[in-house]
Design a protein that fits this description.
142 residues; mainly alpha; 5 helices; 0% strand; elongated
C-alpha cells in the first residue's frame, strides 16, 4: 500500500506538470503569432517553446502515463467503465499534445499556419479534457 501511495503522489505531480505546460504552451503560440518571423522576439519564443515541450511537457506526460498505467495494473482497473472513459479522454489529450508539438515545429520553421484566435481556442481544449478526467476519477459515475 505504501508503494501505491507513492506512485499516486508522483502521478499527481506529473499530471500537474503536464497540464501546466499544456496550458502555457498555446499561450506562447498566441503571442508568437504577433512576432515577425526571424525577429529577436520570434527567436526567443522558439527557444521558450522548445524548452517547455522537451524539458517539462514531454517528460511529465511520459511519467504520468507510466505511473498511471502501473497503478491501473496494480488495482486491476481495466474492466471499470470510468477507467475506459478516462483512457478515452487521455487519448484526446495525447492528440492535443501531438498537435502542440507539430505546431511548435511549424513555428520553428517560420511556417505557422494559424492565427492567434485558433491558439486561444486550442488553449481551452486541455482544460475541458482535464475536467472530464478529474470527474471520472473522483466521482466514478459508471
Amino acid at each position: 500500500m505504501d508503494l501505491y501511495l507513492w506512485l499516486k503522489a508522483l502521478h499527481v505531480i506529473a499530471v500537474i506538470a503536464w497540464m501546466a505546460g499544456m496550458l502555457y504552451l498555446p499561450r506562447l503560440y498566441v503571442y508568437h503569432c504577433n512576432a515577425k518571423p526571424g525577429s529577436e522576439m520570434s527567436e526567443t519564443f522558439k527557444v521558450m517553446e522548445r524548452r517547455l515541450l522537451r524539458a517539462i511537457i514531454n517528460p511529465a506526460m511520459i511519467c504520468a502515463w507510466a505511473l498511471g498505467l502501473t497503478m491501473a495494473w496494480m488495482n486491476d482497473l481495466w474492466a471499470e467503465g470510468w477507467f475506459h472513459g478516462k483512457l478515452l479522454l487521455l487519448l484526446g489529450m495525447q492528440l492535443v499534445h501531438a498537435g502542440y508539438a507539430r505546431w511548435r515545429r511549424h513555428f520553428a520553421e517560420d511556417a505557422n499556419r494559424h492565427g492567434d484566435r485558433f491558439y486561444r481556442i486550442m488553449n481551452e481544449v486541455p482544460t475541458l479534457l482535464m475536467i472530464g478526467i478529474v470527474i471520472l476519477v473522483i466521482v466514478k459515475p459508471f
